Amino acid sequence: MNTARSTKSALDRPPLGARFRAVLLTVLALTVGVVTPAYASASSDDVQTAWRLLDYVAVDYRGAVNAGQVKSVTEYAEMSEFSATVEATIAALPPTAERPRLIAEAGAFRKMIANKAAPDNVAKAARALGAHLLAAYPVPVAPSTLPDLARGSKLYADNCASCHGLAGDGRGPDAAALDPPPVAFRDVSRARERSPFALYQVIGQGLDGTAMRSFAELRSQDRWALAFYASRFAFTNTDAGERLWKADVGLRKRIPDLASLAGLTAASLGAQIGQEKADSVIGFLRAHPEAVIAARPGSLALAHQKLQDSLSAYEAGDRQTAKRLALSAYLDGFEPVEPALAARDATLMGRIEAEMGNLRAAIGRGEPVAAVRSQVAVVDTLFTDAEEVLSPDAASAASTFIGAFTILLREGLEALLIIVAMIAFLRKADRSEMVRYVHGGWAAALIGGAITWAVATFFIGVSGASRELTEGFGSLFAAAVLLSVGIWMHGKSQAGEWQRYITETLGKALTRGSAWFMFGLAFVVAYREVFETILFYAALTTQGGGVVILAGAGSAIVALGLIAWAMLRFSATLPVSEFFKYSSALIAILAVVLAGKGVAALQEAGLIDIAPLSQIPRIPVLGLFPTMESIGAQLATVAVVALGAWYNHRLASKRAGAEEVQRG
Q1: At residue 577, does pLDDT exceed 70?
Q2: Whether pTM exceeds 0.90
């Protein structure tokens, strides 16, 4: 704050004389209000004032009474006065069906203090009365949109740091001249009793008897941004909090929305889950309030919000911020629910991905504001459609079963085609003992995928961007490996090449390292599919229906087993050259598919720009995405395949010619 200001919480006490003057003025105002008809139209300020006094008493009463004895006469007098003020304030509120109950509860609360009740009981009663008051007389207790902590940081530096210190330690350059001194937001014991809503109240109303003035001129969202920013100084172990938040479904149910978070103190949460855990979780959520919205199953509120923020930035002429926020709308808002949506409505998921790409491209090209606004409206409508699809009411046993079945069948088929080709190759080479390395590779991929998912979920909190990057680079690497294998197989399909390979190199190669190559190839082609499948199934399980999901997965496994059996049986009847011809063609097709998927994933992560091609259809199963970059990668892969085929044919012709010369 500027020189004579301090953002002092309602939980921090002014000097005794100033406090009694404030109480006297409050009581006089209430007395006049009781006999003045104009007070019958009480504003939300009266409700907020009563709530703030209750919040004050809940914290400070412990310093006034202990074990039924008064610890501080002045403190106890203040608690008594404040409880009486709360009762009078509630009595003067406009008549409602709930007011008589609130008046009785306020009277009982005042008597608790008169009887010197235990601090824990008083705090519990104060919190309960505050909650009942807000339920009966609703006032804004949470921000209407996500708090902008970057904005909060700037507001804090401009208005608060001179007193409270830039680090929230209460040692700003103007602090020494203030009496009482400004609050140190880093004081953990006080911060545990302070909610963002309490800070929001003080920022808006000021605090009598201190240098803290009202900042009511700030927009409501700015006051919320400042409140959340200041409330996070004391809680620094955010990494542990993130792990707890992601791992504990029950914890996410305790804090289902911004209203719950805004009114929650670390002390009250600590009474439920332990103080150390509570401090970590509060620190994480106050630094990342978007996590509360993102955690709601099927919720795309964060995506909606980021989308509108992107449009606002674009309208203000800030294209870079608009592009960043549009990407965040996808990665942070939509990507967490993408697996669940893919299981229920893959077509809608594809439309959202395509239209989000079109939006980012439009922003990047600097199209007129009206065009960008129209595209935002399209995406926003699709998000709403997705919420309807993801709602619990839209779920059914049949849709869950089909989702579980098709996910595993689709993802497993790509890996299965390669692995079966490898097994068939080893059998035709009369090296069945090497098959175990192939089985070891895909089994290791199963374990590796599960471990990666666990680490990403519970330990390091891999973001949506990181998951897309993993998928993108994994797909491109697999495509490169398959290209080399496919070209090699095509070479062996040429006349005489397979027999030459058997007699000259096969035995030596397989005994000196090709076994581990087989293991690695099986691992690479299976790992990406395993990881993605686990993500899809994790999303499905959050919606319940575990038995149905298992049934769908079991059916898909049976179907994959039958496909593998049929492929192996068919390949056994093929001549060697035909086997390699078909296998190399299959592998080349899969390489093209993975090249398209890899580039598309990197585009979704924001690593590669998007140049839409509206005339190209979107067929994800073929890796076909309507962007110049993705199509370009596939065309480049096709070119490499053609070049490899030409080279193999030329090499085989030379060898055949040389052999004919030798025979002649």
Answers
A1: no
A2: no
